[in-house]
Amino acid sequence: MDCVDSESNGESKHLNNVDDKLAKENKVREKIENSNKDEDRLTEPSESKIPKTDLIKNEQEALEVSPKEEEDPIEIKVIYNKKKYDVTTTSKTTILELKKQLQNLLGVPDSMQKLMFKGLLQDCQTVSSSGIMKGSKVMLVGSTLNDVLAVSSVSKEDIVESDKATTSKEPLSRQKIHRKVLDKGLPEDVMPGIKNIKEGLPHVPLSGMLNKHGGKVRLTFKLENDQLWLSTKERTEKLPMGSIKSVISEPIDDHEEYHILGLQLGPTEASRYWIYWVPAQYIDAIKDAVLGKWQYF
């Protein structure tokens, strides 16, 4: 009996060892199969990446479309001299750029324009920031260079005389083109003139002066708006200081307390607007104001 039991015990141990080996081999196979499956998964396209890619593409497309949408043309109406003009612009266009566009359309220099929409528009604003939208009506106030020069009605004869005066060294007050006005004498309502004295601009307009036709002229300096208002009996021109190219003056013979003053409004000397009997004490202050050296008194 002892022998039988020992043999049976040996066989059972042998079987158990075989079972253990088989179990271990099965575990190894499972690991290998699992690792192969993992590799297969890595080589397969990930479904989760597809929507992310689409999402990125959609975001990029949205970013590309947005600026284009902002740059879409905007149709507005510009009212000038009681006439309406259809103008195409964009929301990102600045007011200064819009003025340059209107200069080409209407002939009004951008420096002589005022655009009004719920108040005065500033050059640094954009169409969008100023509240202008499709169909908005913008008011333009301004004068063409021809309108301004029409105040003095420059004729061909005047241009010839002006050219002669330019080449001549003769004082302004002795030249024929100016004697026409000066020979009429000192206006009764002219402001008092003082020679050899410099004063700042008065708080009231300079009045009582004459233009080349003998008509009354008044100068009002709007320094806060960078403008010079040139007024006659017929009209008032609001000139931006920057539109005046130069200023010249000379004392009047036998009346040195007064000057002849020339405002050059165009590219040539023939476009000077002449003013007579300007009080001498204000000449320097006038030049400083027009040429940019503002002085407040």
From TrEMBL:
It holds the Pfam family ubiquitin. SUPFAM superfamilies: Ubiquitin-like. InterPro entries: UBFD1, UBFD1_C, Ubiquitin-like_dom, Ubiquitin-like_domsf. One of its GO terms (molecular function) is RNA binding. The lineage of its organism: Eukaryota, Metazoa, Ecdysozoa, Arthropoda, Hexapoda. Residues 74-141 form the Ubiquitin-like domain. This is Ubiquitin-like domain-containing protein. Residues 10-53 have a biased composition (Basic and acidic residues). Residues 1-53 are annotated as: Disordered.
